[in-house]
Specification:
By secondary structure, this protein is mainly α. The protein is about 60% helix and about 5% strand. The longest helix has about 30 residues, at about 675-705. The chain is elongated, with a radius of gyration of 38 Å.
């Protein structure tokens, strides 16, 4: 008897053998035969299981379930004397609560684990068919299925078979089960069976010979009439048989269900007929199938029913599978589908997903399948439906590096083992890593992790997931480098043709040129080449994600050639997480940003995590830099060159920030508010233009007059410049105003001001490596025939006597931007009564504005362009929205102070707040204005020159679509959406501006 307060020796032994609740275990053992209870071999065997407490509980339940004492003693004797049974039975009981329940219900099934012959070590379809042969109904089929499953699980947990063999046996058991279920369905409806030939095609993991313990079994049905049976009648019979077979497997009975049979991978999915003829299948795949459907057919395998028909199905459809990579947008489609899977995972589950999450099983499977589809056309050795077999074949053929393949193989096996053991516990379909400590402990121990199983398991899981995340896309790109680089002896490489195929599949239009670029960048034994070989596999993926991968790679080569010998360039790309991806996005988005970068490649530093980053700089900072450059410069030419260099760098910063925010990165999603993107660009370019003008003005004055110009001088921004809405290619619309300084003759002051304007315009347009800044003063009084600069008094006299309605309209955008601030404020004060007239706008003036607008619509649209797609002058475009808002400002600006802004969107919001326009109409106008502005920005970014219409070139149009959020192949959707948005806006304009009902 144990003394009070002291632990029994049994308790201590149980604790030592891994029991977490030794007291409960001791109580359970008290009910077992003493000879067994004290047997050290039994305790050691229990301690070797994944969960000793669970194993002991299951054993006691099994003993209690025996029909009599003789049967119970027979089990105990065998358990003690036969190590194979002991390891298998206790291993299952410690890993699977569900199979322990089965054994408790069917107490003689433990005898299925006694046999240990060669035939038992690796079971196949034939052995499983024998095991299911006695099943006469769905209930007995479930019992027989569990008995077979018990055998697989026992050899799995004991390590007799590895994870790949386990998955293959589970698929073979599923095959035998489908055959048995189809036989039961046929026996229940012999007339239906006689009318048709029906074949069951396994898909997914069952078809790939890599099934889980609990998984949907994906199938497709194909049927033909038997003999001279009418086809429609035969199809009805086949559908009835197929549906009955599915129910036999899927429906819940007193013995539960086996697994759901899922036929949703069939043509048209749930909306399509359950059963089709072979010709109907073929017609669908030839005409309508999407890329993912060919990817799914990789694993198609006939498993039940008419074997000749099943073979005919695969023979007819397999050639189509290997043509899938020739489809337009093949790689983007596959990658987009993978991203969509990740995006649809509930946020709370992402970090626990073994299958679908980043670094999960699906990443390995997608990467392998993508490579198979690209290279399996020419290399039949790659045409395996089993992931690990296909991965091995890819490595043997040089399509994947051997080291990468080995790491992926190890990671995939570990993750599949985790998935198997998680599902085996309760035989439930789940891919989530448990959160409960006890579940994690059992899982870790089931994988052989006995010291600190929870910590070790989580560490190993994260390590393998990180390997998969790092390699799942890289394996697609790295062999392209090996194809042009020096390899170690014995290493396989992609053939030139295979490399070309892969580049074409990625969307490269000129694979030969791409390979030359890769060779130039990555060949050799220099440190730079070694770093490039590390960077390029990832960069190639990012380039492929753009509308023009060729341009991205070419531009990267140019930048690398320019900066390759600088010590910081490759180090920046390698070591700063954001820099490489940011550079890839910028270089492949169009011509403008790369052109700006090529003129000063050192601006790459802006793309890193440090170095000022991509946040726009304030106008005061920009102006301070421009004025400082002027002070350091030797003459106006050098000073303005410095100011233009600053403008080029900041235009690059703005364009890069816009591209990256629009496209998003792996670490940061795309900016969702398109209005914010537009405002950010407009503010940044307008501030930059103002700072450039301020620096140029100071440089010209300093060169010609020293510190003081004979006249006070101010620059007034007009149009988009005054409205803070400049785009990348916009001119600077301005007015110039001056006043003679005290004691200076008015003609001398006017001459000085004119000279300043002329020299500023010249210096800002001198041909150079920097983009020109065009100053447009055509909105001045008397237009091109009037003086370039006027005194404030001259402006006042002109506006009082001669001003036309359009000039008051234009002054709505007038804002001081550079020069003498006090003079600029006086000018805008002079403009206020004209743009915000007391009493509102006379009706005759409103009619004049409408007439002018109508004339613009007919006269200024370029000949041959589609008016509905013209972002500026087309219906519902920028001009429509802006003139509608400006008419409200002219009419109500005097009474509603909030309308006194030069910015379109702010004025529209103010008009909405004042009740001058309904919120719904305002939202329609705002959406159209933002979209049209983004179209203009996109055209400039893509083509490198300004434009108001969508490009006609297909690749440029695709790049504009990519900027606007449309994937490859969806340019038509983009144009339809633009027409739809602007059509709604035009309806509002017709009502508010033209007064149409």
């Amino acid at each position: 008897m144990t003394s009070p307060g002291r632990r029994s020796s049994t308790f201590t032994r149980l604790l030592r053998h891994g029991f977490t609740d030794p007291s409960a275990a001791e109580r359970l053992l008290d009910g077992v035969d003493p000879a067994v209870r004290e047997d050290p071999v039994l305790l050691e065997a229990l301690g070797a299981t994944a969960d000793p407490d669970l194993a002991l509980t299951g054993l006691v339940r099994l003993l209690e379930a025996q029909p009599d004492a003789t049967a119970r003693q027979g089990l105990l004797d065998t358990l003690v004397s036969a190590k194979p049974l002991r390891d298998r039975l206790l291993g299952v009981l410690g890993a699977s609560e569900a199979l322990a329940d089965h054994l408790a219900r069917h107490s003689s099934d433990w005898q299925a684990l006694v046999t240990y012959g060669p035939r038992d070590l690796h079971r196949g379809i034939e052995e499983f068919e024998e095991g299911l042969a006695g099943a006469a109904d769905p209930v007995s089929l479930r019992v027989a299925y569990r008995r077979c499953l018990l055998s697989i699980a026992a050899r799995d947990v004991c390590g007799t078979i590895d994870v790949a063999e386990t998955a293959a046996e589970l698929a073979d058991l599923a095959t035998a089960t489908l055959r048995a279920a189809l036989a039961l369905a046929a026996a229940a409806a012999p007339e239906d069976a006689a009318r048709c030939r029906l074949a069951v095609i396994a898909m997914g993991k069952c078809g790939g010979h890599e099934l889980n313990y609990v998984s949907d079994v994906d199938v497709i049905f194909v049927a033909e009439p038997a003999g001279d049976t009418d086809e429609a009648k035969a199809m009805r019979s086949a559908a009835s048989l197929a549906a009955h077979m599915m129910r036999i497997c899927s429906e819940t009975t007193v013995e539960g269900s086996i697994w759901p049979v899922d036929a949703n991978l069939r043509p048209e999915g749930r909306n399509g007929p359950l059963v089709r003829t072979l010709s109907s299948h073929l017609a669908y795949y030839q005409r309508w199938a999407k890329t993912w459907e060919f990817q799914a057919l990789l694993k198609a395998r006939p498993v039940a029913g008419d074997p000749e028909l099943g073979a005919a199905y695969t023979a007819a459809l397999q050639p189509l599978v290997w043509q899938a990579a020739e489809r337009e947008n093949f790689v983007p489609d596959v990658q987009k589908m993978r991203r969509r899977v990740v995006e649809n995972i509930p946020a709370a589950e992402v970090d626990r997903q073994l299958k679908l999450g980043p670094g999960g099983l699906r990443d390995v499977e997608f990467a392998v399948q993508l490579l198979q589809l690209v290279h399996g056309r020419a290399d039949t050795s790659l045409r395996s439906g089993t992931t690990l077999d296909a991965l091995r074949a890819l490595a043997d053929g040089g399509y994947v590096g051997r080291a990468d393949a080995a790491q992926l193989d190890e990671a995939y096996r570990f993750l599949r083992s985790m998935e198997h053991r998680i599902q085996l516990h309760r035989l439930r379909r789940t891919h989530l890593v448990p959160e409960d400590e006890a579940d994690l402990r059992r899982l870790g121990r089931s994988l052989g992790l006995r010291n600190e199983p929870v910590t070790t398991l989580l560490r190993a899981w994260r390590r393998h997931a990180a390997v998969v995340r790092r390699l799942h896309e890289k394996i697609f790109y790295r062999p392209l480098l090996d194809a042009v680089a020096q390899l170690a002896p014995g290493e396989s490489r992609l053939s030139p043709e295979a490399a070309r195929e892969r580049l074409v599949a990625l969307g490269y239009a000129d694979p030969a040129a791409a390979l030359r670029h890769l060779e130039a960048l990555a060949s050799g034994v220099t440190r730079a080449a070694a770093i490039q070989r590390t960077l390029l596999p990832v960069l190639l993926g990012w380039f492929a994600d753009s509308a023009d991968p060729d341009a991205g790679l070419l531009n990267f080569r140019k930048v690398s050639d320019a900066l390759g010998k600088t010590p910081w360039y490759l180090r920046l790309l390698r070591d700063e997480g954001a820099a490489a991806e940011n550079l890839a996005r910028v270089l492949s988005a169009g011509r403008l940003a790369p052109d700006l970068l090529m003129r000063a490649p050192e601006a790459v530093a802006l793309l890193g995590d440090g170095g000022g980053g991509l946040a726009p700089r304030a106008r005061a900072q920009l102006e301070q830099e421009a004025l400082a450059a002027v002070r350091r410069a030797d003459g106006a030419v050098q000073a303005v060159t410095a100011a233009r260099g600053m403008r080029r760098r900041e235009l690059f910063r703005t364009a890069a920030a816009d591209i990256i925010a629009t496209y998003g990165t792996e670490a940061r999603p795309a900016e969702g508010d398109e209005g914010t993107l537009v405002d950010r660009v407009g503010d940044a370019v307008s501030d930059l233009t103002a700072a450039t003008l301020a620096g140029t003005l100071r440089a010209v004055v300093r060169e010609g007059w020293g510190d003081t110009l004979p006249a006070r001088f101010a620059i007034i921004g007009m149009g988009r410049f005054g409205g803070h809405e400049l785009g990348y290619g916009s001119d600077a619309d301005v007015l110039f105003v001056h006043e003679p300084r005290e004691g200076v003759d008015e003609r001398e002051a006017a001459a000085a001001a004119t000279r300043v304007v002329t020299e500023m315009r010249r210096l800002l347009q001198v041909p150079s490596a920097d983009p020109p800044l065009v100053i447009d003063a055509d909105l001045r009084p008397e237009g091109r025939t009037g003086p370039l600069s006027r005194t404030l008094g001259s402006y006042e006299a002109y506006y009082r006597r001669w001003s036309l309605t359009w000039e008051s309209h234009a002054l709505l955008r007038a804002e001081f931007v550079a020069g003498d601030e006090e003079l600029g404020r006086r000018f805008t004060a002079l403009a206020d009564p004209l743009r915000y007239p007391a009493g509102g706008l006379p009706e005759e003036a409103a009619r004049e504005i409408r007439r002018l607008k109508a004339r613009m619509e007919t006269e200024r649209l370029p000949r041959g362009s589609d008016p509905k797609l013209h972002a500026k002058l087309g219906p519902g475009g920028l001009s429509d929205v802006e003139w509608t808002v400006q008419l409200l400002q002219l009419r109500h600006g005097h009474e509603v102070p909030e309308l006194r802004t030069t910015r379109t969107r702010r004025a529209l919001a103010a008009a909405t707040g004042a009740g001058l326009i309904g919120a719904e109409d305002a939202a329609v106008l705002d959406e159209a204005w933002v979209l049209a502005t983004r179209v203009r920005n996109a055209v400039m970014l893509v083509r490198g020159r300004a434009g108001d219409t969508f490009p006609s070139d297909a690749r440029e149009l695709a790049a504009v679509g990519r900027y606007l959020g449309y994937g490859s192949g969806h340019a038509g959707d983009m144009l339809d959406a633009y027409r739809r948005t602007t059509r709604r806006a035009r309806t509002v304009v017709e009502s508010l501006f033209y007064g149409a009902e």
